[in-house]
Design brief:
By secondary structure, this protein is mainly alpha-helical. It is built from 8 helices and 3 strands, in the order βββαααααααα. The protein has a 3-stranded antiparallel sheet. Helix 4 packs across helix 5, helix 5 runs parallel beside helix 7 and helix 7 runs antiparallel to helix 8. The longest helix has about 70 residues. It is elongated, with a radius of gyration of 33 Å.
């Protein structure tokens, strides 16, 4: 991430389960929003062991020891001291100059943080390429976002290749750009399918992971649908470019044949012409000689080229408007996703409050 979040554990609470346990309310303050995560002591021990495994070394700070004779639910002093120690543990890892523990998936998953594109872009790209080899879809929420980010990068590369093809002057360069764009679109199509499959598994409870909320599931489905529409738009654009190139080649070939035919009229070895067919003459050509017909044909071709240029400008404007609309939709979907998360979180708090009120009453 570009900036580190501010992490604290201001309060603790006790669960309402038959066997109560202490809940540590981890508060994260980001530049745009603040949210709270509820963690158990066992979650911290799992985090510590996973960080050690993924980073290859023990973190520079230790967890508070486990108490076997006193429970934090019955000892407020023990709960407070453990809260302070766990807060120190997280803050030490967050501010440590060595970022090897912060760059692990375990750290980002524990705090529900998005992955850093700078540190994980290579791995996400490798995973995206592995989709085409039949590997199972990703069921890790953080890795899923990494793959979606790489999918967007692949679609961006396809768009750049199509832009280069439109600006290329030689048929060879156009063919190379088309092949590169088609390769990117094939990879994007495979990635979209695997993201959908992974999202179906993320929507259900699984061993070792939490179920995604309804709002987050809806936001990720919108991301996949937007990526599919962008891919289909790029495919239509590529097909239109290929059709236009074929039409231009046909027109150029017809123009060359017409020129050769006119030049051969002055060849002394050429067989005498049979003359113009009066039955096929039009009002515009009947009064013209051969030179006049040539000039008329050239003028018609020039008018057609002007019409094609105007059409190309209109298509370019529509393309630009479509891109701007797509970017705005992605931004609005992100904001709606954040709003859904806040609504789900507030709803959860309301449900807890209702249960407590019901117990009191």
């Amino acid at each position: 991430m570009n900036s580190r979040p501010e992490i604290s554990i201001p309060t603790t609470s006790t669960s309402s389960t038959p066997k109560p346990y202490t809940i540590y309310n981890v508060t994260l303050r980001l530049p745009l929003r603040t949210f709270t995560l509820q963690k158990r002591y066992s979650d911290f021990t799992t985090l510590h062991s996973t960080l050690t495994s993924q980073a290859g070394t023990v973190p520079p700070v230790s967890l508070p020891p486990k108490s076997y004779f006193t429970s934090t639910t019955s000892s407020p002093a023990l709960a407070e001291s453990r809260r302070i120690a766990l807060e120190t543990y997280l803050q030490t890892l967050n501010t440590s100059p060595d970022d090897r523990w912060r760059n692990t998936p375990a750290w980002r998953s524990f705090l529900n943080l998005p992955s850093s594109s700078n540190n994980n872009n290579h791995h996400a790209s490798k995973d995206l390429r592995s989709f085409a080899n039949g590997n199972p879809p990703t069921t890790d929420p953080v890795a899923w976002l990494d793959h979606h980010r790489t999918l967007k990068s692949t679609l961006h590369d396809a768009r750049l290749q199509l832009t280069k093809r439109d600006q290329a002057s030689s048929p060879q360069a156009q063919h190379e750009c088309s092949a590169s764009a088609k390769k990117c679109l094939v990879q994007a199509g495979t990635a979209i399918t695997n993201l959908e499959q992974g999202l179906k598994q993320l929507g259900s409870d699984g061993w070792g992971r939490e179920k995604l909320g309804e709002g987050e599931m809806r936001r990720r489905k919108d991301l996949v649908e937007a990526a599919r529409k962008e891919k289909e738009g790029l495919e239509n654009l590529m097909n239109a470019m290929v059709a236009k190139s074929s039409l231009d080649a046909t027109i150029a070939k017809a123009s060359m044949a017409s020129k050769e035919k006119l030049l051969n009229e002055g060849n002394p070895h050429k067989k005498p012409a049979t003359g113009r067919v009066l039955g096929k003459e039009t009002d515009r050509t009947r009064a013209l000689d051969n030179q006049g017909l040539l000039q008329l044909q050239q003028q018609l071709m020039k008018d057609q080229d002007d019409d094609v240029d105007v059409l190309a400008q209109a298509v370019a404007r529509q393309k630009k408007i479509g891109i701007e609309i797509q970017e705005e939709l992605v931004l609005q979907q992100g904001l709606l996703g954040m709003l859904d998360e806040d609504v789900d979180r507030v709803q959860g708090k309301i449900d807890v409050a209702r249960k407590r009120v019901a117990k009191i009453s």
